Predict the structure.
Amino acid sequence: MIDAAAVILAGGRGKRAGGAKVFLTVEGRCLILEVLERVLSLFSQVIISCRREDSEPLNRIIQSLPEKDRVKTVSDRVEGLGPLEGMAMSLRASEKEWAFVMGCDMPLVDPAVVRLMWSKRGENEDAVIARIGGFLEPLHAFYHKRCVDAVERAISRSRHKITSFLSDITTLVIEERELAHIPGYRRSFLNVNTPEDIRSWLEERHRCP
C-alpha cells in the first residue's frame, strides 16, 4: 500500500446533489462506500472529515465495512470554514507524513493515476498536484503534514478557497501529458455534483473496474 493516509473531505452540504453528498445513494448504495472501497485498496489509513451533525450516521455506515478499524472521522472545530478546516483537522489527525486529499464525490479515483502522482514526490515538495484541462486539481492531490501551518494561516486570514495556501508551500505540478498514457485517466478526477454527473458516473462505472 501507499505509505500515506487518504483524507476524504465530506463536509459539503451538496445542494446541487439534493443533500449532503456523503449520504448520496445511487442504485441503492451510498456513494461514500464506493469511494471507500477504492481508497482502502490503496491506503492503510482513511480519514473522513465531516460536519459534527453527520459524524454519527456516517460512523454507522462505516461499521458495515470489514475494514472499519482503518477508517476514522474528524469534525471541524468551527462550522462554515469550508474544506480548508477539514483539511487542517485531517492532516493533524493523520498517522502518516503524507495524505492524499480528495472529495467524497469522487467514486472513480484511479489507482494508476494515484500511484504515478505518489511516485513523483520529492524531498523538497510539500504537495503533488495534477493540472487537468489547464486547471489545478487540489482535491485529488498529495500533501505533506507540514502544509498544516500554511493551511491554518490561510484560515486565520479568512482565505477559505482550497487553493489559497498554495502560494505558501512548494508544489510539484504534474502536467496532463504525464498522465496521458494511463487509459481513462480523466475519470479519476470526476466528481458527482448533479443528476447529470450521476448518470455520467454510472456510465463510467460500467466501463472500468
The chain has a mean pLDDT of 88. Strands lie at 2-10, 25-26, 29-30, 43-50, 71-75, 98-103, 127-132, 135-136, 140-144, 171-175. The two ends are 18 Å apart (CA to CA). Helices lie at 31-40, 52-62, 83-93, 111-120, 148-156, 195-205.
